[in-house]
Amino acid sequence: MNAFAFTRRTAREIAREAPPAAASAAAEVVEAVRAGGDAALRSYAARFGDPAPREVTTAEMLAALDAIPRDLRAALERTHARIERFAEAQKAALREFSYRTGGFAVGQRLIPLDSVGAYVPSGAHPLPSTALMTVTPARVAGVGTVVACTPRPTDVTMAACAIAGVDRLFVCGGAQAIAALAYGTATMPRVAKIVGPGNAYVAAAKRAVAGACGTDLPAGPSEVAVVAGADADAEGVARSLLAEAEHDPDARAYLVCDDDRLLAAVEAAIERQLATLATATVAGAALGASAAVVCGSLAECADAANLLAVEHVELHGPAAETLAPRITCCGALFVGAPAAFGDYGIGPNHTLPTNAAARYASGLSVYDFLLVRPYARALEPEDDVRADAALIAEAEGLPGHRAALLAGARQSIGR
Questions:
Q1: Residue 311 catalytic?
Q2: Residues 265 and 173 in one domain
């Protein structure tokens, strides 16, 4: 009998689980930073054992870029190019336009945000990939100023920030960094929008500051649902589950399958692979809190995956791969490949909705950094437009609207 065994649960039971409780603690930090500014940032850094908050100079970032191994620098630069290409294709799919209707010229303009804050986690592991993922689409969109925050900057993270084009980089992390970006301090600028993944406290802090600035989406802790048919490779399934689980003890890695024999084989493979995995303590804790969802058919597996609405869905095995058109509710879908390819920059962004937010949210993209501004310019407003608008205003009991509509139309026509 295997030492490792998944808890069996239904997708509906998992979907009803509450996310990690962090809202009250994060709200306390946010309020302290809003009121205390830099002093609060220094206090929290000391309490959590983080480096003292400071700004990293451009010279430091460029020195880090020169210091990292050449092959790693080349890999970062190639990955940046892939992410940039995808963001440019996204931007090209959204366009400005104008046309005439009812005596007006109407259309939309695309206006980049003037400032963005990118949160780059670096708790147990440095994440230069996140610097590339959050900053690159902002630059493609044309954002004026890109500020990045990370609690423990390593050379490789600073190098990635330099490659992606960060304007200002600060040593600051956790909920306190989110608050500083949202409200500004004497040393850290206030930004229009905050993007980037993080732990439960970072996610809760982003919810707490929403309104003071824009935020992208609930992104963290990480999740995967591996949908596997009976013909899937158990070792490959296990690798994918462990890859997700090693992020964080709060990460979740679900196996969704329709075959008890495959489940047993995957559990045995996980046990073998955990024995040699350097991150086994973290991965084991995450898998222990995860679950297997055993369904009656592959069609039911697809339904279960949609109900879970997790960050990543992977389809393993030829039979499961046919389910791709049925998977509609996830941050990103990977067919025949582990989500780790998405983590490291084949193009689409790895900042994705978690905690079932895939039901209503998309992953980070160039669109998060653009404002779509509609406009209307009066030429010679036509009688039916004026009459229709006046009738609707009257029906809504708004005579001031009606008067403005009629007066505005007459003035325009009289020019």
A1: yes
A2: no
